[in-house]
Amino acid sequence: MSNLCPLDFRYGRAEMKRVFDEDSRLLFQMQVEAALARAHAFLGNIPNEAAETISAIADLDHVKISRVKEIERDTKHDLMALVKAMTEASGDAGRYVHLGATSNDIVDTATALQIKSALGIIRADVDELILTLAKLAKRERDTLEVGRTHAQFAIPITFGFKIAGYLAEMLRHRERLEQVEKRAAVGKMAGAVGTGAALGAHFFQIQEKVMEDLGLGYEPAATQVVGRDRYTELICLLANIATSLDRYGTEVRNLQRSELSEAMEAFDVTKQVGSSTMAQKKNPITSENVCGLARIVRGFVIPTFESQVLWHERDLSNSSAERFVLPHVFVLLDDMLHKMIDVFSHLSVDRKRMIHNIEQAKGMIMAEPVMMALAAKGLGRQEAHELVREASMVAARDGLHLQDALLASPVRDILSDKEIWEAMDPAGYVGGAPEIVDRLVLEASRTLGINI
């Protein structure tokens, strides 16, 4: 059978895929079953030897995937198939497999282990992107560029300042990832409706012991499942990060437009092909790919919200959706993060083109500093604004440089020629942009514990 899902043959890295593949899913579930047996033994509910046996067979050498599938064809229940296969492999100890548990005690707790592992990979990705952005911001700290609002020239910035904004955003995402794990990597061992009745008098101790063993938190008042608000928060955060990457990719795509040409993705001119017909093309394909994948990630947000609404103590409507949501979102985001790391690690920045574009503005981007210079002379802010606005309209109408229009306007009665020239210098009007870069690079250094 040929591959159907693009994750099988086009997108995603092996490390993240392994977290969610069939082997890992069964291994995580067996780890939970083994932890349950150990908790029972610790509390004297079952013999220690039985817990040791169950723990020893909780791997794919003793419990074959083929056998689990064979049993599932009869039971039509995937978790019960695993339980029966583990029971077979455990010999006399098999009578204690799954003792007091319900299916979602195992499934949700195993999912928590997957989430914990996957979040570890995402956090490492984010740290690598933070480092990459910090290095780029530092390198381009003083690179003069025109800022744009409404897709039009605004006032000067530095390219490093633009990247520092991305860096600040990713530092916030890093903090969010640290916070979400304690709420998302949570299991349960509380039975059919969350009361723990089948686990007996030691219910609370069993649940605490299992989760301590596995390094997880536990749901304090479960139904048959862990509260799905946890998954909603998690997926919304991952979609938030994906949208940030979408924003960065969109900016790279815009800056690579022919009429701007200020920054460009790396392109191997010796062999890379931009177009099958337009031989001259160098396309921002990686950034475009990231932007497209972000749409898919965001598409999983709505099913996640809908899976939060379950009947009574639980129905099964969430199960099939979640089998798609969690693996796809984690695999795609991991893929996207690595692609943006590659883009920013090898980004080509054309400083001369940035200056050229500033010059193309014919001084119009310096209207604000002239207005502020007038205000500093004691002119009312609104009156200063109107004087500069009138000169700007004349410059636009007649195709003049703003400086020439100002020198022929009433502004010259207030500011000297030298003061006008100084106010018109783009390099002198970037405000605290360089210091903002320094501060964000320092914060990144402290956060990562390295000197950038």
- Please state the overall shape, judged from the principal axes of the Cα atoms: elongated
Q: What would CATH call the homologous superfamily of the largest domain? A: Fumarase/aspartase (Central domain)
CATH topology of the largest domain: Fumarase C, Chain A, domain 2
| Overall mean confidence score, pLDDT | 95
Task: Give the topology string: H per helix, E per strand.
Answer: HHHHHHHEEHEHEHEHHHEHHHHHH
Low-confidence stretches: none
Helical content class: 55-70%
CATH top-level class of the largest domain: Mainly Alpha
* Count of the separate structural domains: 3
- Enumerate the strands of the largest sheet in spatial order, edge to edge or round the barrel: 1-2
Structural class by helix and strand composition = mainly alpha
Distance between the termini: 49 Å
CATH architecture of the largest domain: Up-down Bundle
Largest sheet: 2 strands, antiparallel
Total count of strands: 6
**With helices defined by DSSP (H or I, 4 residues minimum), what is the helix count?**
19
What labels describe this entry?
mainly alpha; Fumarase C, Chain A, domain 2; 19 helices; single chain; 6 strands
Task: Give an account of the 3D structure.
This protein is mostly helical. The protein folds into 3 domains: 91 residues, Fumarase C, Chain B, domain 1 (Orthogonal Bundle); 254 residues, Fumarase C, Chain A, domain 2 (Up-down Bundle), CATH 1.20.200.10; 60 residues. 63% of the residues lie in helices and 5% in strands. The protein is built from 19 helices and 6 strands. The strands form 3 sheets. A two-stranded antiparallel sheet has the order 1-2. Helix 9 links the parallel strand 3 and strand 4. Helix 10 runs antiparallel to helix 11. The longest helix is centred in the N-terminal third of the chain and has 37 residues. The radius of gyration is 30 Å and the shape is elongated. The two termini are 49 Å apart.
